[in-house]
């Protein structure tokens, strides 16, 4: 169906798209900034603490744009979502490894934002030999080269 026919059929829908699209696509700027800063953070800090680097390419696949059955705009939307969600997953893994190294203590109530490393953390309120437990978590974090994330 031609675009003009679709607009005539549901003008309210296309008006809402015209209003929301700049808001949605405007987020590309902070997403790119986050990508750059997370990458810089990891490049500078992880070597100092001997934390294995997160492979950005494991989180940013950008593959759905190759699907021949998608229209140009669908491919553009998929590329945007692939990139944004990939950056957030990459940033979450970098933050998760940072938390694993610096403060591997669970919260008093289970957080929905928990990452894959959270289950390896020390139980909330378990101060039994905390320095030894903390050191062991740091060693595990440093040794996670091949088992840090599910995609590695």
């Amino acid at each position: 169906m031609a675009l003009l026919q679709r607009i005539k059929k549901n003008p309210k829908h296309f008006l809402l798209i015209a209003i929301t699209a700049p808001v949605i696509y405007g987020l590309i700027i902070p997403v790119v900034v986050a990508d750059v800063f997370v990458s810089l953070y990891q490049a500078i800090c992880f070597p100092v603490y001997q934390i294995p680097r997160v492979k950005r390419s494991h989180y940013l696949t950008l593959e759905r744009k190759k699907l021949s059955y998608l229209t140009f705009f669908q491919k553009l939307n998929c590329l945007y979502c692939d990139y944004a969600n990939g950056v957030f997953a990459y940033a979450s893994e970098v933050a998760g490894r940072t938390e694993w190294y610096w403060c591997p203590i669970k919260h008093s109530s289970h957080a929905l934002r928990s990452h894959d490393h959270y289950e390896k953390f020390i139980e909330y309120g378990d101060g039994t030999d905390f320095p030894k437990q903390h050191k062991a978590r740091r060693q595990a974090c440093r040794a996670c080269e091949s088992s840090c994330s599910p995609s590695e």
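Residues 29-99+134-152 form one domain. The chain has a mean pLDDT of 87.
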